[in-house]
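Running this now, will post back.
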Amino acid sequence: MICVSLAEKDPAKCLEILEKVEMAEIRIDLSGYKDEDISRIFSIRKKMIATCRPGKFTPEETVNKLKLAIESGATYVDLEYEAADDYRAVMIEYAHKHQCDVIISYHNYELTPELNELEKIMEGCFKKGADVAKIATMVNVNRDNSKLMSLYKAPGRLVTIGMGDLGKISRIVAPFLGAEFTYASLTDDRATAPGQINYARLNQYILDIQEI
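Update: finished.
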């Protein structure tokens, strides 16, 4: 399954896009949605991830917006690996109360750690309460992709993503290795992370592989 990461600022356009994709991540922090927009978007019958990275809103606003997304129907909520324990505990309890799965996500925008460290991070995600562990790291050499992909040998629901141009292959093969889903951008100029492939192209790549 392909999850399209959306930072569309116009809620009406966001709803139009959601009609055309099977799954989406709504970047509440990048869109800046008001509460009524969040409620409207997450109440439609669509698999969606509620994500609100630190920095855009106050901690209290972030909690309230994510809770609103969860109670409105979010399928997943994404919480940062580095998040404070008390914040994470509150959000996990609230998510599970509303049948929403929790993604604990680790990001490294500079490099891909060695495999033993990646394995510890993955285990840490689950220890912190993840239903799904997400690891996204910058791929600087092809060997980094091998490290990320080898994580799929372990049990548990997982998404590992290589960022940057060299990491694109990880986004293509992830569904065939057991990933919960893989991420894409809507178009080339609307990526929310380095190396995202646009939805139409990624979908075609996956279809082509399935036909081999």
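DSSP finds nine helices and eight strands in the chain. More later if anyone needs it.
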